[in-house]
């Protein structure tokens, strides 16, 4: 949760400045991930009569059926974040991903609607705008992370993704390639650092360094004999602390977080899914965290670390997911996003206008070339 918009904007601006310096480019448009705080997920449907006289489905029909699916009474404190179409139905024929160019009389859309508290969405947008940036698109953060941290089979058969970040921990359940459930625990890696700072009576910066250099989430894997110096407030000489003692502090906080997540997952019977548990996020870089998670959840656990050059750290999973989500937006996704009530939700690129089927030239582009061209268009537009 953003509690100080000015400080959040300053942090965003500082991060973007670093990125501009490293990449030698000017960044003015960004993809924003909205956390799953109080996220509500519901299935929606919409139906319209095809407007064109020829009964050929066009871009306008896709927009109209998406708008029809959004007709609902929302509580005044909530706002629509996004609508993910799962299938279109043309005259009773279902499982259609892109109905444009087809002939039909009745067009239906089935999708998943994500809504969040207005405060969450407003504060996110306001902080980004105060940082001098334009929002290209807004993405549900756990859904974006799942796109890179989970394989296609894991998203299909059902898997739990737990993102242990600095400020909070998010559990997301993916099944049937859809985000079915989220739970947020308002504690993360920063709380571990605070515990170390308080227990060892050392500064926050020193505590963070201790966690990164000597931390272990599994106290059984450490020894009392392995010690290191700690700068203690009020003492002139450093105090020697054992790795085991530090690990016990870390383990205690992580155990509390995982047990609360475990209780939420048990309530929805999430462990019946075959994909097990995948953990990611910056805090999961701690040694021993996989073993600790397996002990608490009593299910197979693996850690996801991005394999891209320069990103081989679980802290980058979320950022990579946001970029990939924007790059892989289809024309239909863009059309649907254009009818959302939030005016800042702009497509990263414009959808390709549809033409009559007989007027389309033969497509000799290979699938690899298509994928490459989409990514190139995204990179060109995103960094323009």
From TrEMBL:
<dbReference type="InterPro" id="IPR003494">
    <property type="entry name" value="SHS2_FtsA"/>
</dbReference>
<dbReference type="GO" id="GO:0032153">
    <property type="term" value="C:cell division site"/>
</dbReference>
<dbReference type="InterPro" id="IPR020823">
    <property type="entry name" value="Cell_div_FtsA"/>
</dbReference>
<comment type="subunit">
    <text>Self-interacts. Interacts with FtsZ.</text>
</comment>
<dbReference type="Pfam" id="PF14450">
    <property type="entry name" value="FtsA"/>
</dbReference>
<dbReference type="InterPro" id="IPR043129">
    <property type="entry name" value="ATPase_NBD"/>
</dbReference>
<dbReference type="Pfam" id="PF02491">
    <property type="entry name" value="SHS2_FTSA"/>
</dbReference>
<feature type="compositionally biased region" description="Low complexity">
    <location>
        <begin position="351"/>
        <end position="360"/>
    </location>
</feature>
<feature type="region of interest" description="Disordered">
    <location>
        <begin position="348"/>
        <end position="371"/>
    </location>
</feature>
<keyword id="KW-0472">Membrane</keyword>
<keyword id="KW-0132">Cell division</keyword>
<feature type="compositionally biased region" description="Basic and acidic residues">
    <location>
        <begin position="361"/>
        <end position="371"/>
    </location>
</feature>
<comment type="similarity">
    <text>Belongs to the heat shock protein 70 family.</text>
</comment>
<keyword id="KW-1003">Cell membrane</keyword>
<dbReference type="GO" id="GO:0009898">
    <property type="term" value="C:cytoplasmic side of plasma membrane"/>
</dbReference>
<feature type="domain" description="SHS2">
    <location>
        <begin position="1"/>
        <end position="149"/>
    </location>
</feature>
<keyword id="KW-0346">Stress response</keyword>
<protein>
    <recommendedName>
        <fullName>Cell division protein FtsA</fullName>
    </recommendedName>
</protein>
<comment type="function">
    <text>Cell division protein that is involved in the assembly of the Z ring. May serve as a membrane anchor for the Z ring.</text>
</comment>
<keyword id="KW-0131">Cell cycle</keyword>
<comment type="similarity">
    <text>Belongs to the FtsA/MreB family.</text>
</comment>
<dbReference type="GO" id="GO:0043093">
    <property type="term" value="P:FtsZ-dependent cytokinesis"/>
</dbReference>
<dbReference type="InterPro" id="IPR050696">
    <property type="entry name" value="FtsA/MreB"/>
</dbReference>
<dbReference type="InterPro" id="IPR018181">
    <property type="entry name" value="Heat_shock_70_CS"/>
</dbReference>
């Amino acid at each position: 949760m953003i509690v100080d918009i000015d400080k959040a904007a300053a942090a965003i601006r500082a991060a973007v400045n670093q990125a501009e310096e490293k990449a030698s480019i000017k960044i003015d448009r960004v993809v924003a991930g909205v956390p799953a705080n109080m996220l509500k997920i519901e299935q929606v449907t919409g139906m319209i009569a095809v407007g064109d006289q020829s009964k050929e489905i066009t871009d306008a029909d896709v927009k109209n059926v998406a708008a029809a699916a959004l007709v609902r009474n929302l509580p005044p404190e909530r706002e629509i974040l996004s609508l993910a179409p799962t299938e279109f139905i043309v005259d009773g024929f279902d499982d259609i991903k892109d109905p444009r160019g087809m002939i039909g009389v009745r067009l239906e859309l089935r999708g998943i609607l994500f809504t969040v508290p207005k405060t969450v969405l407003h504060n996110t947008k306001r902080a980004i705008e105060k940082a001098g940036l334009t929002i290209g698109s807004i993405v549900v953060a756990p859904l974006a992370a799942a796109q890179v941290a989970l394989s296609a089979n894991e998203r299909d058969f059902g898997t739990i993704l737990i993102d242990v970040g600095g400020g909070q921990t998010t559990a997301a359940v993916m099944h049937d390639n859809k985000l079915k459930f989220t739970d947020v625990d308002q504690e993360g890696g920063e709380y571990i650092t605070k515990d170390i700072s308080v227990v060892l009576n050392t500064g926050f910066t020193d505590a963070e360094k201790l966690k990164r250099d000597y931390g272990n989430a599994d106290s059984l894997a450490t020894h009392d004999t392995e010690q290191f110096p700690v700068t203690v407030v009020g003492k002139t000489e450093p105090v020697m602390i054992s790795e085991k003692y530090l690990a016990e502090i870390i383990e205690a906080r992580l155990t509390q977080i995982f047990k609360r997540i475990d209780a939420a997952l048990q309530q929805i019977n999430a462990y019946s899914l075959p994909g097990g548990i995948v953990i990611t996020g910056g805090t999961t870089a701690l040694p021993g965290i996989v073993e600790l998670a397996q002990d608490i959840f009593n299910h197979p656990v693996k850690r996801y670390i991005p394999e891209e050059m320069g990103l081989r750290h679980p802290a980058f999973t979320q950022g990579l997911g946001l970029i990939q989500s924007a790059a892989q937006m289809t024309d239909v996704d863009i059309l649907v996003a254009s009818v959302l009530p939030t005016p800042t939700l702009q497509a990263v690129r414009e959808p390709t206008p549809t033409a009559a089927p007989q007027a389309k030239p033969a497509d000799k582009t290979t699938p690899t070339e298509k994928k490459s061209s989409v990514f190139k268009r995204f990179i060109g537009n995103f960094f323009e």
